[in-house]
Design brief:
This protein is of the alpha/beta class and 282 residues long. The protein has a single domain, classed as Aromatic compound dioxygenase (Protocatechuate 3,4-Dioxygenase, subunit A, Sandwich), CATH 2.60.130.10. Helices cover 27% and strands 20% of the residues. The strands form three sheets. Strands 1, 2, 5, 10, 11 and 12 form a six-stranded mixed beta sheet that branches. Strands 4-3-8-9 form a four-stranded antiparallel beta sheet, with no helix packed on it. Strand 8 and strand 9 (234-239) form a beta hairpin. The radius of gyration is 20 Å and the shape is globular. Mean pLDDT is 93; it is low at 1-6. The structure holds 3,4-dihydroxybenzoic acid (DHB) and fe (iii) ion. 3,4-dihydroxybenzoic acid binds next to helix 4. Residues 79, 82-83, 104, 106-108, 197, 199, 218, 251 line the site of 3,4-dihydroxybenzoic acid.
């Protein structure tokens, strides 16, 4: 992990995401040599075709090589791939589901967040900035049965757009927690509204975004993994209406079904949001 006095740089965030990816997952797929050959060949052919079509020069080829080397040096492959590629993998993986829509996981999930019952407050600093938010809902099966004992695993960034365990100086489980639905399938989460998030701009991913004159923003979002015994886990995100980047998310991960409908609360200047999850059978 990074130390408190390090700045929240792309290199630090990227290195944390890369380290996390390496330790938490087993990265093997039982893909046959024929399928590896097919996929590798078609990807390479798409590259060749792009070079021919646009008459790519040696200078541009060398710039690409230097950039690819830098993505690795900055540890930014998880960030880059999750922003620009994961949304299509998710689309393919979840195409046949009838229940709640999923979307990308992104690089900042941390397994093992504290259990907080069916109603609780996410761990946060005494001085945690941001609009207070209560997020509640029900988990059901596609047949409409409330699922008690379902897990709602939530993580989101703070009011500055930083994620605990990936940006330095934030307590380990800040704005991360797991909830277990009650006997009626309900959960209630007290937290703060996350801020829009700008993917780190000082590393290799930022360099290509700048070189292409794109922007680096994702709209404000909550990340969730919702699961229950004998049901398929869904990884998703929820968004807030009116965010300037709902229509041009750099990660292409917004779907209309994932839009919240926040209501202002009478006291405290906070918001209340309700969202139900529907899980497909396993
Ligand atoms: C990235 C960050 C996110 O918070 C997210 O939801 C998706 C992608 C990223 O920096 O790659
Ligand atoms: Fe995110």
């Amino acid at each position: 992990m990074t130390s408190i006095d390090e700045k929240a740089t792309a290199a630090a965030t990227g290195a944390s995401a890369t380290e996390r990816f390496r330790t938490d997952k087993t990265h093997t797929a039982d893909t046959s040599p024929e399928r590896v050959s097919l996929l590798a060949r078609e990807v390479l052919e798409a590259v060749h075709e792009t070079i021919r079509k646009h008459q790519v020069t040696y200078a541009e080829y060398d710039a690409l090589k230097a950039w690819l080397i830098q993505v690795g040096a900055d540890g930014e492959w998880p960030l880059f791939l999750d922003v620009f590629v994961e949304h299509v993998v998710e689309e393919v993986a979840n195409a046949a589901r009838e229940g709640s829509k999923g979307t990308i996981e992104g690089p900042f999930y941390a397994p093992g967040a504290p259990w907080l019952g069916s109603e609780g407050t996410l761990p946060m600093r005494d001085s945690e900035a941001g609009t207070p938010m209560t997020f509640h809902g029900q988990v059901r099966s596609v047949a409409g049965k409330p699922l008690s004992g379902a897990t709602v695993d939530i993580w989101h960034c703070d009011d500055d757009g930083f994620y605990a365990q990936f940006a330095p100086g934030i307590p380990e489980w800040n704005l991360r927690g797991r909830f277990e639905t009650d006997e009626n399938g309900n959960f209630t989460i007290h937290t703060i509204q996350p801020a829009p998030y700008q993917i780190p701009t000082d590393g290799a991913t930022g360099a290509i975004i700048r070189a292409a004159n794109w922007h680096a923003w994702r709209p404000a979002h909550l990340h969730l993994k919702v699961s229950a015994p004998e049901h398929l886990l869904i990884t998703t995100q929820l968004y807030f209406p009116g965010d300037p980047h709902n229509d041009d998310d750099i990660a292409t991960a917004v779907k209309p079904e994932l839009m919240l409908d926040p209501k202002k609360t009478e006291e405290g200047g906070g918001i209340d949001v309700e969202y139900d999850f529907v899980l497909d059978p396993a």
